[in-house]
Amino acid sequence: MATLHGLNFVGAALRKSGRTFSVATPADGTPLEGRFHMARPVDAEEAAEAAAAAAGPLARATGEERALLLEAIADEIVALGDDLVRRACAETALPEARIVAERGRTAGQLRLFAAVAREGSWVDARIDRAQPDRQPLPRPDIRRMLLPIGPVVVFGSSNFPLAFSVAGGDTASALCTGNPVIVKAHRGHPGTSELVAGAVRRAIERCGVHPGVFSMLHGEGSVVGVQLVRDPRVRAVGFTGSRAGGRALGAAAAARPEPIPVFAEMSSSNPVFVLPGALAERAAAIAEGFRASMTLGVGQFCTKPGLLVAIEGPDLARFRGLLAAAVAATPPASMLGDEILAEFDHHRDALLAVPGVRLLSHVDGADAACTQAGAVLAETDAATFLAHGRCADEVFGPMSLLVAACDARELHAVAAGLSGQLTATVHGSAADLDGSADLLELLAGRAGRVIVNGYPTGVEVCHAMHHGGPPPATSDARFTSVGSAALERFVRPVCLQDLPPHLLPPALAEGNPLGIERLVDGVRGRH
Amino acid sequence: MATLHGLNFVGAALRKSGRTFSVATPADGTPLEGRFHMARPVDAEEAAEAAAAAAGPLARATGEERALLLEAIADEIVALGDDLVRRACAETALPEARIVAERGRTAGQLRLFAAVAREGSWVDARIDRAQPDRQPLPRPDIRRMLLPIGPVVVFGSSNFPLAFSVAGGDTASALCTGNPVIVKAHRGHPGTSELVAGAVRRAIERCGVHPGVFSMLHGEGSVVGVQLVRDPRVRAVGFTGSRAGGRALGAAAAARPEPIPVFAEMSSSNPVFVLPGALAERAAAIAEGFRASMTLGVGQFCTKPGLLVAIEGPDLARFRGLLAAAVAATPPASMLGDEILAEFDHHRDALLAVPGVRLLSHVDGADAACTQAGAVLAETDAATFLAHGRCADEVFGPMSLLVAACDARELHAVAAGLSGQLTATVHGSAADLDGSADLLELLAGRAGRVIVNGYPTGVEVCHAMHHGGPPPATSDARFTSVGSAALERFVRPVCLQDLPPHLLPPALAEGNPLGIERLVDGVRGRH
Predict the structure, then answer these.
(1) C-alpha span between B365 and A515 (Å, rounded)
(2) Residue B71: which of B202, B256, B183 has the closest Cα?
């Protein structure tokens, strides 16, 4: 096992501080190696200064140079081998197969963004050439492209120690578009964070990139995190976590003299609507599929299905029994940490305390160290659901609420009453779906992703993915944190008017030296 | 002249209220025809309800249907003929040629968005097809497109009674993408607003579109405007006006339980950097060009150049004399209204009161009614400019500040000290420009549009235009309010996973029935 130094990565430097913390494995409380240094205000200052110094050089780097950096980071992460897997498993209590899969996803994500950087068309180049003879006034030459915005602060998430952390999707999309990154490492997995940060630094050295493009600090989000969000050199923030955390960062960013965007992916109940035909045809399969999705990773996914909505009747009665039995047969497992387990207990109990909500099925934690959470299925009727906003709130962990509607109209009312969601799912027979255009349209208005006959967990990293949704699921319905469109968060357009040809950036130059897709005088093509 | 009813357009209805106001021509205080009804809270309620009812039908309308509506609006506005021109001139004191040109721009803008709606590729369709045999897990079919967001509130601006008002760029881009519009008419030109609203309504009737797609209300921005921004049915806001107004609307929108974006284009000083070679080669031409741009429309453009930065020396001394003389020879003219004139006087005096700022040249208003503003040129040195934030603030009206730097380093410091701007301009000889890569890069980081050897007034409506810029120029550096990219403000992506083929919207269907540009499995084309 690699030795952990516990220091903060401040550009090219490693910095210690007077205050340290350590972590224990959530599975049984065994203390883990490493004392991690809480970053001081001066460390955040210097990280921001280093990022600002690196912004110009990284913005001027070619797409190929950025692609090589992203690929080198992927290679270095994979090269960490079992050390990384072991440490991540120990810090999160997630099983090895999950961490190995997440490492593959993280490397694949970095390589996807490398391909996007290398190809280069993401700059959305648009050229409207001069018309010197136009009447009544000549038209100037106008060219527009997307540019990086500058240093981005990324908050590591608790539940994806690799894919949404130090070198996850936020970091990859920021670097792809030429923005330096400062990571605030999550408190729950500092050793994993240090290993990945070391991999990033080795990649930076190998590629000869300005060392200010990457820093990583340990510490409290509400202290060093907020300091970074307020720093005038920082231009955007990526965050995956709680609604309270996302809102606090958003408020800090909005209160700056020059506000900056905070892209916060916060909470979602991911409702699943099971229509009558599906309930009749596939009750057992849906019960098992839903159970597997709601308990995957101990329910610690932002896309965990927290609501199941169906219409009362004999088929739902049968389904209810199947699902309750499946939930009761699911072994309990350790959550990511004490605080997350305590939050789960709190929100579970609050939901069960709503008048009209009843417990259908549950499993108790079974370990002596009391780190486990058991799956919980509760039930209520649509009227209660609609009357108590608490029923629609996310419970982070392995709990779902079955909502029984008395008819299709009431099922629609539940859908219409939903606030913004990351996902919404419909299970239906062919006949159900043919009659569901209204429901699908309604859900598309409330969720970032609408799924038919599937489950919301499992978010593909691809061009067409939209992992977002209207508030309060995220802070901004227009942006995704997964897939190649995630880069749109960290860019801004600039228009160049009548620049001498030799001063134009290559993306906007005559002859299209980069060979990218451009919109020239309204016509799209590689010209 | 058409008779004005003064009523509020609430969907298909016309509504009066107990409180009315009238306007006078700013040029000489002559009362103008028409008593305009201040919308009541119930009118705003009903307009929002009508817009919400129209949102579904308009979202489902084809691109061709939306294009026909936009073209019909353009036709109906042009068909208003001299009535519209006369009323707009009377309400704004802008000259006839300007209003005629602005009408052309407004119709052209509507037709540009019609073409974009008809062509259809704006939905940014992306398809990643299923890979059922992928290991370790199959990949689902994932398709993503942009959808309209719902009712948009548009605040008419004072300085563009046609192009940024009732049927201006905000309305055109919202309708193009399928969003109903509620206009809060500007208090300064209610008659012009009524005429245009009537044209929009006739177009809606002619095209058989849901009448809820358009409402227009008279009243105070801080009352009926804020009510609309807070209405839960409203999904976005477009605003062109003061920094205080934009920030107040932004705060109201952010305080909603489900916050919505406010696209506010607020203020900019539009600095012009005149480099030594240009000063030596073209002093007279630049002095005249700058004067014309700063006094165009009595300086009432968001892109009015309010700062001119150059390096001290004999060439600047000569230029200073030429510019001062040109300013002194500019006839005064009536501003858009009393309040705007009073604001101009206030901000002009505040700038002149900054220690180290001196008056170089000015013209007095010459009319008995005291509605005119004369051009004003002030001067300071770079050290004073950098020490007093007030020097960089916009003065809305015909005033500019010449900033003399002692050398190139100080000129760069002035550029580096700028906050977000709509535009930044560089005048340079060929040799100047060859040495200006750093300055151009610096300005591209602070302005939405960088202009070489031109003037910032005159904003082309085209695909490559970016009329925006970092805060405080606008509320969001990523979006433009002019040009076809302005539609990006009123859309959000939605991802559809594993939908049965026959339930896919045409933009995402197999075989590409709309023939639009799409990104299919990572390859762009009309496939």
Answers:
(1) 56
(2) B202
CATH number at residue A140: 3.40.605.10
Residue type for B437, please?
A
> Alpha-carbon torsion A468, A472, A475, A477, what sign?
positive
Chain B residue with CA closest to A466: the answer is B495
Q: What sign results for the dihedral spanned by CA atoms B414, A126, B150, A239? A: negative
pLDDT in tens, A78-134: 999 999 999 999 999 999 999 999 999 999 999 999 999 999 999 999 999 999 999
Q: Which two tokens stand for residue B411?
A: 């000129």
Order of strands across the sheet that contains B125-128: A358-362, A376-381, A399-405, A307-311, A271-274, A421-427, A447-452, B491-497, B142-148, B125-128, B518-520, B523-525
SS3 content of chain B, % helix, strand, coil (to 5): 45, 20, 35
Are B344 and B430 within one domain? yes
H/E element, B290 = helix B276-295
Dist CA A348 CA A356 (whole Å): 14
The verdict on residue B506 lying in a domain is no
CB contact under 8 A, B478 and A470: no
Selection from B270, B241, B268, B265 nearest residue B158 by Cα: B241
Q: Residues 73 to 92 of B: which have CB under 8 A from any A CB?
A: none
Q: Which SS3 state, helix, strand or coil, does residue B470 take?
A: coil
C-alpha distance from B120 to closest chain A C-alpha (Å): 13
Indicate if A363 and A215 belong to the same structural domain: no
Residue with tokens 């009352």: B223
Complex ipTM, two decimals?
Answer: 0.96
Q: What 3-state class would DSSP assign to A38?
A: strand
